[in-house]
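Lay summary

Proteins are chains of building blocks that fold into shapes. Our project writes down both the chain and a compact code for its shape. Here are two examples, one after the other.
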Amino acid sequence: MKRIILIGAGHAHLHCITEGPTEDVEWLILNASTYQYYSGMYSGLADGTYDIDEIRVDVAALCHAHDKQFIEETVVKIDPVEKVVFGASGRHYTYDVASTNIGSFDWTEDTTRLSIKPNYRLPDTLKRLQQAKCPVVIGSGAAAVEMAASLKAAGVPITLITDPELLSGHPSAKAVSRRLIELDVYWIRERPLNEVSPLHFSHHSPINSDAIIRLTGAKAPALFAGSNLYTEDGFLLVNEQLQALDHPGLFAAGDAATLVSYPEIPKNGVTAVRQAPILLKNLLHFLQEEPLQSYRPQKHYLTILSMGPRHAVSLYGKYFSIHPFGWYLKRWIDQRFMRKYRS
């Protein structure tokens, strides 16, 4: 019997767990935590719309329900030649085909710098932010403004530190700015000179913070650099079939991979969800020595920023809307996604 190893339980791998056939295939899922937290609902957790159980998947139970083996394990190295995966526990696991969907990272934690990547850190980090005297969010993109608005809507005295320009200059930036001002978010429009407390600036007084998170885009995990694989800025390079270059038995989806043909694809959950059906087909086709399918990213897709309960900014291409319907639509989309993975 051939073995497929799924490293990580990200958006794409959740699809493989529920939809992957078990006849003549052994599935082994290695994830650093029993739970996988859905990033699309982080803001809803922060503003009190959801509780913790509503935004997480019990991966162990899901695997059991679909006749797949789960092991709580952090993968530290992959040998793509011998087809062996090495875990932090000291155990190693052989495979016929493997896939990684482990997400991205942000920075090394210390006494004040907190992280929500890997996502099993989310509950503790959010609690620290909510209890802090001067919590800080650093970032100018969707994740940062959404988190800052949601925390402030829940009464957390958040400080948001951004570049002078929000959302890379997207036309919706003015609407987002108005919402942040409406919420009375303490907002510094200047990048800090350092990333530890106290935070220093060229034109603003220093900020002392007891809890800082940085949401400035995806950072590569350490796994690939130590596994003799082709990478770019630490991200695993894959072809249009989602295969690692020079190692066709290793696949990857989501944040931790960069497609050589489409390097500009956003590293977010939407991309992983879109890649999921192609990934599953190609894992199975590879085992059966059948032709693989190519992933073609869509040019535009809907993004909805939840800016506190019943407030949202919806983006599609260069267009945007501030109609409250966006908040209800996001809630429906997210809850529908989670229902698929209730074990």
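And here is the second example, written the same way.
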Amino acid sequence: MDLGIAGRWAVVCGASKGLGHACALALAREGVHLVMAARTRADLDASAAHIRAQTGVQVIAVPADVTTESGRARALGAAPQIDILVTNAGGPPPGDFRGLARADWLAALEANMLTPIEMIRHAVGPMIERGFGRIVNITSSAAKAPVDILCLSNGARAGLSGFAGGAARQIARHNVTLNNLLPGKFDTGRLRSNNAARARRSGLPLQEEIALQTRAIPAGRYGDPDEFGAACAFLCSAHAGYITGQNILIDGGAYPGLF
């Protein structure tokens, strides 16, 4: 399927690895030019070079921490225009809520709720003027099914979902969509670090912890980041203009509910 977005420009955050990189690559394969933002220059440059070589699109690599005002300004200002915005920031650390300080909560809200809101606020006006825009927040399945040791993420992601649901309905008439993609367990560095933390807490060998988790997923495996990237690219496509304000769970069937 031709997604109808070749030649558009996308800003993709957290694009050097994991699910952010998968989204950037999927968009580039559709002919979308990229601004890739991430904090670590070496990883970012390697990822940008990989995508250029594979796809031939224009790729601007911007080393930036988008949780800061200056980092957001560098990332958003690097694109000639922003047709597509994919927000993404590393999740806060796991932990028991009883051991967390107020500063931990404020940092989580800044990174995983307020930063995406600020980036959307900046990008949405020109999208409305041009009559096209696609915004996707990479959040977490924890926004729908809270995870015991991810209380910081549970709260911040749920807050972002609430904001997005209201904002999406304000801008839908302009062919600007706003959706949240909620990944379950995908084979990324973030998941591997969480698994290690769980194994330490449970006292189980790491491989046994992984086996327990995959048995709980109806698909019987972790997700492949490329699968996530493909879903993101479709939501950013010309064909997805009637999908907005949604929390779309991609978790191999792990969530047991209907809604």
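What can we say about the second shape? The chain has a mean pLDDT of 94.
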